[in-house]
Amino acid sequence: MKSKNSDKSLLRIGVDTGGTFTDFIAADGSRQLSFKIQSTPRAPEEAILRGILRILEELGPAGGGRGGGGDRVRIEIVHGTTVATNALIERKGARTALVTTAGFEDVIEIGRQARPDLYNLSVTRPDPLVPSVLRFGLKERIAAEGDVVERLGVVDLEALVRRLRLARVESVAVSLLFSFANPEHEQMVAAALEPLNIPISVSHRILPEYREYERTSTVVINAYLAPLVSRYLSRLTAGLRELIPSGGQDSSTGLLVMQSSGGAVSSEVAAREPVRTILSGPAGGVVAATRIASMAGLDEIITFDMGGTSTDVALCRGETHTTNEAQITGLPVAVPVLDIHTVGAGGGSIAWVDDGGALRVGPESAGADPGPACYGKGDRPTVTDANLVLGRFAGAGLLSGEMTLDQDRAAAAIDRLAESMSASSSKKVSREKAALGVIDVANANMERALRLVSVERGHDPRLFSLVSFGGAGGLHAAALAEALRVPRVLIPSYPGAFSALGVLLSDVIKDYSRTVMLAVDHGGPVPPLISGLFSELETQAVADLQAEGFDQKRGKIGRNSIRTLRSLAMRYRGQSYELDIPLKGDGSGFVRDFHRAHRERYGHADPMRQVEIVSLRLRGIGITGKPAIDSVRTLRRHKAVSNSRAAAWLGESKSKVTVYQRSALKPGAQLDVPAIVVEYGSTSLIPKGWSCGVDRWRNLVLDRIGAAKV
Questions:
Q1: Is there a domain that residue 451 lies in?
Q2: What is the rounded distance in angstroms from the CA atom of residue 40 to the CA atom of residue 34?
Q3: pTM of the predicted structure, to 2 decimals
Q4: Which of 376, 463, 611, 641 is 20 to 30 A removed from 293 (C-alpha atoms)?
Q5: How far, in whole angstroms, is CA 279 from its chain's centroid?
Q6: Can you tell me the distance from the alpha carbon of 181 to that of 515, in angstroms, rounded to the nearest whole number?
Q7: pLDDT (tens digit per residue) in 426-441
């Protein structure tokens, strides 16, 4: 990997904070560095600052050390974070109030009357983030068309401010009825609450779209997370300022934060709108996987990101796909989010036996502290311990020897699990049998996630390739592909820090939307009203991106340039769901494109039925400088060289496997299988029944023997 920009004064750093490790990739005009260190969950910025210090020291004098006056004058840091995710999952956000139209205070508790489990008579709904005592109704009313029916009074606003002061809230969400059609009253509320000096989240800025429950839920989540994320980014920014002192007016350090949509945004915007960062970390991996797969000629892919705490999967067909219908811990998040499914299965997932005697794996994770038993602190068996006991690390430690693995401690943890399994069955369970059981159960959990994004959505996995990454992904990818009959697996370079590469590959993205509810004819161009609204949104997008240093005058190609993409959320009139239809060229075929998309998604279309534009959406893109991926022009096939063999349990018995060092594998190399490929940050297992070679971009390409070629 190298930078496209030969400017050695620019150092770009990608950081992805996970539950177990924090990953780093840095690139300048001629050099690159990739590594990972253990995360510090209680203060994530500490691990980040340690890693950036290491980058500044290892990249030599051009880095200027800690403000040492070298040539380096510009540093750009792009950060994928789990701070918002963890705060929402663990319910550790701020004391938040909700201000809404009188009579609608309980919208976030009533929600939609859809049952997540149709036949479960004891379904429990997630508690609302704002308790009833902190929900405040205002006498006001905007009509659906935007007309003021009942004007908001100044006296009511003054009373609201007093009540909020007495409630000692840390953040406020404002979501008034039909504010997307006319934000006047929300603007009045925001202005009145400004003296409180706390974060104020208003729905017409966060999500100016219809659907009262989803809009309110989204703005409440934003308010709930804002104080915590703002404090975190402030600590990180202060630490960076201390670590990298300014060297003059020509030097700068910029911090961008990855969004759930697959694009980055400034840290200031992320602090104001943290709801856009809830799937920040996993998004980077999907962005990188799509880019690498496209270079390798693979457009139809399923991404498989297995880390220490969880596994994230997504299906991509030539590009990343976003959804506005995501749910996190049962709560709707209606801002654009990459269509990623997460399951609680990772290298640190804890194995246990339930009251019925069944072996379970996860969702609880040992995390970074204490970590798996083999890390030397914990004593509970995990997936990593099972892989170690089965010999699948080939005797190597982690991180090229920076972390040693305690084989005896892992064996003791698996032995205790085997005893529990034996006690609940009629026969003794061996250590290896228990470890194999842990792997099988973990794989079953991840296989269900992969089926959910493929088979259950009408896609045949046999027509896709699996792109595997994450520190633990390579050990499980072939088995999962076998179960799904996926013919090809691609394991890229730097799989353990792949999401960090993804955040470096991301552009700055800003999403805008407007609800219109407009019926359209069966054909013809985009209505003038829609074109005019798009022009307004484009003007706003360009202004916002120019404020962050991007230049519209550069055209649509090249670093720092600006692009915009238009799409329409459309449906048949009377439906309650929409499809997002990209506008191509002059947009004249948008109705035809909708019918085609509806048939592809749902299996039917009705060209004679009235079509409705519900919302228009615009994406503003600021093009960033990206690291290029090294490749060779001519691929010379040759047998890979290895001087190491090991014994590993690949099934019910031990097998001899060839052990390869990934750094020694050149493009064109063909591996003997079964094999274990060891590298910094990850280990990959290639079992019997698969072939494995190294392509032009140094990806490991596994092909299932006998399967049809992708």
A1: no
A2: 19
A3: 0.88
A4: 641
A5: 4
A6: 8
A7: 789 999 999 999 999 9
